[in-house]
Amino acid sequence: ELLTPRRALTLLVGPRSETRLEAPLQERWYGTPYNLQPVAHEALTRLAEAAPHPDLRLPPPNPYVPDSFQLLEPPPPPAA
Predict the structure, then answer these.
(1) Phi and psi for 26 in degrees, rounded to 5?
(2) Has residue 19 got a pLDDT over 90?
(3) End-to-end Cα, the chain, rounded Å
(4) DSSP class of residue 6?
(5) Beta-bridge partners for 25
(6) CA–CA separation, 32 vs 23, rounded Å?
(7) pLDDT tens, 20-79?
(8) Rg (CA), the chain
(9) How confident is the model at residue 80 (pLDDT cuts 50, 70, 90)?
(10) DSSP conformation letters of 16-79
(11) CB 35 within 8 A of CB 23
């Protein structure tokens, strides 16, 4: 319920010739030009009402991600 178009931060990255957007603001450290603007209400409504794409699904489980985070006892010190 929190993952909605109204709560999303949408980034459009590309050359001005393709985005057709002006970038009047400038980032403080690197001087990168950028722009901030709200998404139109109509677009947000269309996105919120859109049906999920049928080919989108969760990936298979990753076998390398542990499912137990219990700490193991350290091995006993070697006998002297």
Answers:
(1) -135, 130
(2) no
(3) 61
(4) G
(5) 34
(6) 9
(7) 888 899 999 999 999 999 999 999 999 999 998 999 999 999 999 998 999 999 999 998
(8) 24
(9) confident
(10) HHHH-----EE-TTT--EE---PPPHHHHHHHHHPPPPTT--PPPPPTTS-S--PPPPPPPPPP
(11) yes
CB-based contact 69:63 (threshold 8 Å): no
Q: How confident is the model at residue 16 (pLDDT cuts 50, 70, 90)?
A: confident
Contact assessment for residue 23 and residue 33, using Cβ atoms and an 8 Å cutoff: yes
Distance, in Å, from the CA atom of 76 to the CA atom of 80, rounded to the nearest integer, reads 12
Q: What is the pLDDT of residue 71?
A: 92
Cα–Cα distance, 7 to 44 (Å, whole number): 10
pTM: 0.54
- Strand, helix or coil for residue 15: coil
Tokens 């957007």 found at: 21
